[in-house]
From TrEMBL:
Alphabetical keyword list: ATP-binding, Kinase, Nucleotide-binding, Transferase
Any Pfam family hit: Pkinase
Gene: CDC15
Entries under SMART domains matching the protein: S_TKc
Annotated EC: 2.7.11.1
Claim: Nucleotide-binding is one of the keywords in the record: yes
Annotated residues for binding of ATP: K52
InterPro entries per record: Kinase-like_dom_sf (IPR011009), MAP_kinase_kinase_kinase (IPR050538), Prot_kinase_dom (IPR000719), Protein_kinase_ATP_BS (IPR017441)
Keyword Magnesium: no
UniProt xrefs under SUPFAM superfamilies: Protein kinase-like (PK-like)
Entry GO MF terms: protein serine/threonine kinase activity
Domain of life according to the entry: Eukaryota
Protein name listed in UniProt: Protein kinase of the Mitotic Exit Network
């Protein structure tokens, strides 16, 4: 969830071997502004999952947003969308159990391996667009498409994640609000100021850092 600064990731509270519901937590595999993400083992099936841990303290103001993310993810089933298995409240934390994407985000992939060849960008984009087409078919607008929110599995599939600021499109209503991550949003505002009729596709913009390895091109 991108817009949740109050919620602090608390990795220390989830020591390895801690059990939440029927999931055992393992090592921390990622961290965002609001969450820590752990590898988890489903003790009933043996399946490995990702467990997103959010601190409940100060969450009241974010409760609607979190409920929305869980509600949206639960209903979505597509090979290019991260599947949600369930959630659990335990102690001071909320835990969201999700499909594990072993390779983490595409942002991390670019950090580790540098720029991506055009041929692979085309493969990633094809999958991102299939995920987006599915979402739009369900009336869901993601609103924060960026490399950090596109996760990849070890077989090379990519999946859209992080529905913290996603919204449902009401029939006939256009969504003209600009939301999302700062550097992305600044660039979009700049483009809209130049030509308000311009339709900017966030998914197309993702390709720029993939091809150039320039992550902060639009930072302000
Ligand atoms: N399903 C998953 N499988 C594997 N790794 C994941 C998964 N979900 C998240 N991660 C890892 O954890 C990191 C942080 O997760 P996420 O971006 O959801 O946190 P956040 O705090 O909600 O994000 P933000 O910083 O945008 O607010 C990701 O960048 C990714 O590396």
């Amino acid at each position: 969830m991108s817009a949740a600064p109050q919620i602090q990731a608390d990795a220390a509270a989830a020591a390895p071997s801690r059990t939440v519901g029927h999931f055992q937590l393992g090592e921390c595999i990622g961290r965002g502004a609001s969450a820590a993400v752990f590898r988890g083992l489903n003790l009933l099936t043996g399946e490995t999952v990702a467990v997103k841990q959010l601190r409940q303290e100060g969450m009241a103001s974010q409760a609607d947003q979190i409920a929305l993310e869980i509600d949206l993810l639960k209903q979505l089933r597509h090979p290019n969308i991260v599947a949600l298995h369930g959630f659990e409240e335990s102690g001071q934390h909320l835990y969201i159990f999700m499909e594990l994407c072993e390779n983490g985000s595409l942002q991390e992939t670019i950090r580790k391996f540098g720029k991506v060849p055009e041929q692979l960008v085309a493969i990633y984009m094809g999958q991102v667009l299939r995920g987006l087409a599915y979402l739009h078919g369900q009336g869901v607008i993601h609103r924060d498409i960026k490399s950090a929110n596109i996760l990849s599995t070890k077989d090379g599939s990519v999946k859209l994640a992080d529905f913290g600021i996603a919204t449902r499109q009401h029939q006939g209503a256009a969504d003209n609000t600009i939301v999302g991550s700062a550097y992305w949003t600044n660039f979009l505002i700049e483009c809209f100021q130049r030509d308000p009729s311009l339709r900017i596709s966030a998914s197309s913009l993702c390709q720029h850092p993939w091809l150039s390895n320039s992550m902060v091109a639009y930072a302000r």
